[in-house]
Amino acid sequence: MHCPRCKSDDTAVVDSRIAEDGRAVRRRRECTKCTHRFTTFERQELSTLIVVKRDGTREPYSREKLERGIWVACTKRPVPQDKVDTMLTRLEEKWGANKKEVSSSTIGNDVMKELKKLDKVAYIRFASVHREFKDVEEFKEAMNKLL
């Protein structure tokens, strides 16, 4: 593991803990060169999960890509990082359970359901991208369903 500050590859694990209800390992590390401390997470890789997009193309699932989209929806909202991590881990387990492929619409709909429980503004922001609202009326309709 490289130090994010000085890029040295000589780091030591200071502390390890189980995280996300046993689904991940959280490690505190310290760089032996510059003494900078940082946290890493170790999770099971879902490398075999393929996302089937709307146009029929397929691509490997990327947690980072999905998480980036969720954080865009959560911009300036009081949504804690651990809630998003837990949500993503739970959804990944659901999608990966005995499946090799998952549709992008399933991913989007599942994320919307979870965001609706977590933060309604983030839900509407995510929904506006996922559902591709064509006009203000579609957006109003989604807002009215929420209220």
Describe the structure.
This protein has 147 residues and is of the alpha+beta class. The protein has two domains: 1-43; 44-146, no CATH class. Helix content is 44%, strand content 22%. The chain contains five helices and six strands. The chain has helices spanning 63-73, 81-96, 104-118, 120-130, 136-146; strands spanning 11-19, 24-31, 37-43, 50-52, 58-60, 101-103. A three-stranded antiparallel β-sheet has the order 1-2-3, with no helix packed on it. A three-stranded mixed β-sheet has the order 5-4-6. Helix 1 (63-73) packs across helix 4, helix 2 (81-96) runs antiparallel to helix 3 and helix 3 runs antiparallel to helix 4 (120-130). The radius of gyration is 18 Å and the shape is globular. 12% of the residues are buried. The model has no long low-confidence stretch (mean pLDDT 88).
Shape: globular
* Total beta-strand segments: 6
Could you give the distance between the termini?
47 Å
Rg value: 18 Å
How helical, in percent, are the residues? 40-55%
Number of helices: 5
Structural class: alpha+beta
Low-confidence stretches: none
Widest sheet, order of strands: 1-2-3
* Largest beta-sheet details: 3 strands, antiparallel
In terms of DSSP E residues, the strand content is 15-25%
Task: Indicate the mean pLDDT.
Answer: 88
Order of helices and strands: EEEEEHHEHHH
How many domains is the backbone divided into? 2
Q: What is the fold's blueprint, element by element?
A:
Blueprint: E1 11-19, E2 24-31, E3 37-43, E4 50-52, E5 58-60, H1 63-73, H2 81-96, E6 101-103, H3 104-118, H4 120-130, H5 136-146
Parallel strand pairs: 4-6
Antiparallel strand pairs: 1-2, 2-3, 4-5
Helix pairs in contact: 1-4, 2-3, 3-4, 4-5
